[in-house]
């Protein structure tokens, strides 16, 4: 069926064109919509409400009015982050203040007499929503969903207007509460997650976040009696009857495997009175269950079907679930599915921001992030420091990555009762939203690195267990924090705090001398943030904080620091030396990200903000099981490259062939090191003058380093390095992690333009400026103002972002040097093709540009007056005083 696009001021439904293809990757990934997967022909319809919002980045009087003239505003699509920022957007350069969104649409008559809710996955800060000029709802906090009821507010046969006021200004009355100018991340803003229009009949399964029911509302799933032979799946479902008459219903619960086969089913009859609700419980027996784990993330589809007394289906919802048993056994460590976990749980922290778009990363972008981290061998991710987009949780479920869910908060407490009550509400709502995800291993309900009252710690621990009763539920808290004795797992580094302020040589004796006292701790221990090593909390210089474009030497310094530094410090090696009670750790941080309180972005990621990898990424990758062998030479063969050649591999042995002449062998130092696959370094192998000599004797083809990985004496993987020669061409590469661009008007993907020699080897020592052009069903995200186009080449690469239109088709990207000459590298071209979305859309207007840069909202620059400059200077002095307190608080929590 072709997409159906009705004329303006009518509902628009775009149905998927699922092209026949053997490769699943050519079909769009199916995500939940407003909390549930869709069940066909079940009386429930969920429409994509992201397309065609009028937007202005300002406070405007009267914009909530139905008749307000917004024709001069930009036309944008959600997810939307207020503005495009640069790849270096720290220090508070992002906009803070009110903004308005208005959406015009004419609802279909088929929605009459339906229950209608507008579901927002996330709007930053505080917001208010009006329907045709009438206030329909308001919300505080930018990281959790909320809904507004449209059932009685719409007009049929004419245009309707939804108006949203969103304000990301500093506000201490709701979490996180901390001013962005003293915050280690950036709030950004806008309607930065999906918006869904949910249509149901009068009888429907509720959404847990819309109901104030402890351990209830929506669908709650728990597990008992889990073994490889059988398992019990316990389901509790909450149903509302908004009809005035009592209804006799049949509720079916079906559990299906990945092939669609029903492996267990339960059915029960129930009567629900008029304008009443009821919760039902079911127990499903599953024989020979496929248990969920990181190496086998088996998912089942749990469907709930409601039939009336005539046998008609009146509602149906589904979720993916994973049957698994989690146990924290203290001294015996972490157990999964009745077996001790093999090795340490190693992973990363993750902020949600991305280059240019800030927090407004669409679902496929979230998925690509998860794939990238899974490919690096990541087994666990800690939220930093708020609930993430639901699609990222779903990716962790499907890919097999454990997740630690955190409530919004960072180094801030407000004694006002309203702040504390809103934290409790956030904790309840994050549990209600994420409780059925098999990836969830721990809950972090405390406010990160915050001095809060003793009572608060116990309260939030108790709230998690109230909302999620039963076994396998674990709260986590810093070992030195107030009220830590109430929590199920404690956060700690493997060393006492003395390591942070002293340069102890990394010897076995020193490591044991300052090891924490595991004997007096009965609980499992996890390191929430390892690796970061700032000189102080003002300058922030660190061997971990290395920008990718600083090149080879800097990246090797970071790699060494994360692997096993020469001084006692939490690292891959240090964590693996810890007893099994210490179950693992999460690196700070996965990706470079922007910050409010410092002029520099955080450069300690294993990738940059575009997800271009650094050598530390391959360090993580090399710690995977050798069932998936890899080898990587961390050396570029430039005139400034190190004499030592660093090789990252998970193989038993490495054979290094130098200049097609010398053959060297080395094995990982497993006798003295505990990490799975220690780094191999060949000493004094490379000398630029050796290459120069080969060139002089017309043997340039021999100038190479070849690393071969051997397992059981056989070569299983190979990596070859050659120096880049004369820059000849521009090569464009799509970084989509195997997930194609979807034509939904919001999806974005990274395209990297590289300056290479004739053989395609990247010319790392290039500093040209590059410009881009695009044709077809997409647009470039970036412009002169944010440095996106033209863009400076850094370490041989110039990344750009491409956004899809709503029409599937070809997209052609071209890259040129800004100044071209007869001896300049040839321009590059890349053709990609977006695929059709499976969503049904509702909109009257179509945005040509996701951030309005083709319209009237282009960034305008203006000089500051002397008075404005003085105010800025005074503000900066005040912030510096506040940052002293931040430094003191970070120093208290660091290393403990």
TrEMBL record:
> Where does the UniProt annotation place the signal sequence?
1-25
Pfam families assigned to the protein according to its UniProt record, in alphabetical order:
Glyco_hydro2_C5, Glyco_hydro_2, Glyco_hydro_2_C, Glyco_hydro_2_N
Q: Give every Glycoside hydrolase family 2 catalytic domain span.
A: 332-456
Query: Which UniProt keywords are given for this protein, alphabetically ordered?
Result: Coiled coil, Glycosidase, Hydrolase, Signal
- Coiled coil regions in record: 857-891
- Boundaries of every Glycoside hydrolase family domain copy: 733-815
Q: Which GO terms describe its molecular function?
A: hydrolase activity, hydrolyzing O-glycosyl compounds
Domain (Glycoside hydrolase family 2 immunoglobulin-like beta-sandwich) spans 226-324
> Its GO biological process terms?
carbohydrate metabolic process
The Glycosyl hydrolases family 2 sugar binding domain is annotated at 94-199
Q: Does the keyword Signal apply?
A: yes
Q: Which family does it belong to?
A: Belongs to the glycosyl hydrolase 2 family.
Q: What is this protein called?
A: Beta galactosidase jelly roll domain-containing protein
State the organism named in the record.
Answer: Snuella sedimenti
């Amino acid at each position: 069926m072709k997409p159906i696009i009705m004329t303006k001021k009518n509902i628009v439904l775009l149905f998927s064109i699922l092209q026949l293809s053997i490769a699943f990757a050519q079909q769009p990934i199916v995500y939940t919509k407003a909390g549930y997967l869709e069940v066909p022909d079940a009386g429930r319809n969920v429409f994509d409400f992201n397309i065609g919002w009028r937007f202005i980045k300002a406070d405007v009087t009267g914009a909530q009015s139905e008749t307000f003239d917004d024709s001069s505003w930009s036309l944008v699509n959600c997810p939307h982050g207020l503005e495009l920022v640069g790849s270096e957007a720290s220090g508070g350069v992002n906009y803070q203040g009110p903004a308005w969104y208005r959406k015009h649409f004419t609802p279909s008559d088929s929605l009459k007499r339906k229950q209608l809710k507008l579901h927002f996955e996330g709007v930053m800060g505080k917001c208010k929503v009006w329907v045709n000029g009438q206030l329909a709802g308001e919300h505080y906090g930018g990281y959790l969903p909320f809904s507004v009821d449209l059932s009685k507010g719409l007009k049929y046969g004419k245009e309707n207007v939804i108006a949203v006021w969103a304000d990301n200004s500093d506000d201490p009355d709701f979490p996180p509460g901390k001013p962005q100018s003293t915050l280690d991340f950036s709030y950004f803003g806008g309607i930065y997650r999906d918006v869904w229009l949910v249509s149901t009949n009068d009888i429907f399964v509720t959404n847990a976040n819309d109901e104030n029911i402890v351990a209830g509302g929506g669908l709650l799933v728990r597990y008992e009696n889990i073994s490889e032979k059988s398992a019990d799946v316990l389901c509790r479902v909450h149903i509302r009857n908004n009809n005035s008459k009592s209804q006799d219903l049949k509720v079916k619960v079906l559990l299906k495997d990945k092939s669609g086969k029903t492996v267990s089913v339960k059915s029960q009859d129930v009567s629900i009175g008029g304008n009443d609700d009821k919760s039902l419980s079911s127990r499903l027996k599953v024989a020979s269950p496929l248990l969920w784990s990181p190496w086998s993330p088996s998912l089942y589809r749990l469907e709930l079907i409601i039939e009336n007394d005539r046998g008609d289906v009146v509602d149906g919802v589904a979720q993916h679930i994973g049957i698994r048993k989690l146990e924290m056994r203290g001294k015996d460590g972490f157990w999964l599915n009745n077996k001790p976990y093999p090795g340490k749980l190693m992973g990363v922290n993750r902020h949600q921001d991305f280059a240019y778009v800030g927090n407004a990363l669409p679902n496929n972008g979230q998925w690509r992030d998860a794939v990238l981290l899974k490919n690096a061998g990541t087994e666990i991710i800690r939220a930093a420091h708020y609930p993430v987009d639901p699609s990222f949780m779903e990716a962790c479920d499907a890919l097999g990555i454990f997740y630690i869910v955190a409530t919004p908060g960072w180094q801030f407490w407000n004694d006002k009762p309203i702040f504390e009550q809103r934290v409790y509400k956030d904790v309840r709502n994050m549990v209600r939203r994420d409780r059925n995800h098999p990836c969830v291993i721990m809950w972090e309900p405390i406010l990160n690195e915050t001095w809060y009252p003793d009572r608060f710690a116990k309260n939030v621990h108790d709230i998690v267990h109230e909302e999620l009763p039963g076994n396998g539920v674990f709260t986590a808290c810093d070992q030195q924090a107030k009220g830590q004795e109430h929590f199920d797992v404690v956060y700690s580094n493997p060393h006492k705090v003395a390591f942070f302020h002293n340069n102890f040589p990394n010897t076995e004796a020193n490591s044991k001398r300052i090891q924490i006292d595991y004997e007096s701790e009965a609980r499992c221990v996890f390191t929430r943030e390892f690796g970061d090593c700032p000189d102080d909390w003002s300058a922030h210089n660190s061997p971990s904080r290395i920008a990718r474009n600083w090149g080879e030497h800097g990246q090797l310094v970071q790699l060494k620091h994360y692997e096993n530094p020469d001084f006692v410090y939490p690292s891959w090696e240090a964590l693996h030396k810890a007893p099994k009670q210490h179950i693992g750790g999460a690196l700070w941080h996965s990706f470079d990200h922007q910050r409010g309180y410092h002029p520099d972005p955080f450069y300690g990621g294993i990738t940059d903000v575009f997800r271009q990898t650094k050598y530390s990424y391959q360090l993580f990758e090399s710690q995977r099981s050798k069932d998936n062998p890899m080898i990587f030479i961390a050396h570029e063969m430039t005139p400034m490259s190190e004499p030592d050649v660093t090789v990252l591999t998970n193989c038993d042995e490495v054979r290094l062939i130098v200049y097609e002449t010398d053959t060297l062998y080395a094995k990982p130092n497993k006798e003295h090191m505990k990490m799975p696959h220690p780094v191999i370094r060949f000493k004094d192998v490379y000398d630029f003058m050796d290459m120069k000599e080969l060139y002089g004797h017309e043997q340039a083809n021999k100038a190479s380093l070849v690393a071969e990985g051997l397992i059981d004496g056989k070569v299983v993987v190979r990596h070859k390095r050659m120096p880049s020669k004369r820059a000849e061409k521009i090569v464009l590469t799509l970084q989509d992690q195997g997930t194609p661009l979807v034509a939904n008007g919001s999806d974005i993907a990274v395209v990297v333009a590289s300056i290479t020699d004739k053989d395609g080897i990247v010319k790392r020592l290039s500093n040209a400026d590059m410009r881009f052009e695009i044709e077809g069903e997409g647009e470039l995200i970036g412009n002169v103002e944010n440095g996106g186009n033209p863009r400076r080449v850094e370490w041989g690469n110039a990344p750009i972002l491409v956004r899809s239109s709503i029409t599937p088709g070809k997209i052609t990207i071209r890259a040129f040097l800004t100044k071209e000459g007869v001896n300049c590298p040839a321009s590059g071209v890349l053709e990609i093709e977006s695929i059709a979305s499976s969503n049904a859309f509702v909109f009257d207007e179509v945005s040509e540009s996701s951030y309005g840069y083709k319209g009237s909202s282009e960034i305008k620059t203006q000089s500051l007056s002397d008075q404005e400059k003085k105010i800025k200077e005074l503000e900066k002095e005040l912030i510096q005083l506040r940052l002293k307190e931040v430094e003191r608080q970070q120093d208290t929590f660091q290393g403990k």
